[in-house]
Design a protein that fits this description.
The protein has 82 residues and is mainly alpha-helical. 66% of the residues lie in helices and 0% in strands.
């Protein structure tokens, strides 16, 4: 069951990457790139689920929480005192 999902996400990543590379409209290219990111997160989650639970493999955090941490780093803005 999970193996077919893994193959599906790999094919979608390949297809959307190809579409992004050939797209000339930057906004459409961005949509394809966003889909690639989403499918990579889903692929990672499926690969973790496919691991045998007794294998001692460490499960990494996946999904939206990890994606947000990867792309949304907190920044500090300093305003000069007047």
């Amino acid at each position: 069951m999970s193996i077919s999902n893994i193959e599906y996400y790999r094919k979608r990543i390949e297809e959307e990457s190809r579409r992004a590379a050939s797209e000339t409209d930057i906004s459409v290219r961005h949509v394809h790139q966003s889909l690639v990111k989403m499918y990579r997160i889903k692929l990672q989650a499926e690969e973790v689920r496919a691991q045998p639970s007794g294998s001692g493999a460490q499960h990494t955090r996946v999904g939206l929480e990890q994606a947000c941490e990867d792309s949304c780093q907190a920044t500090t803005i300093r305003v000069p005192a007047t």
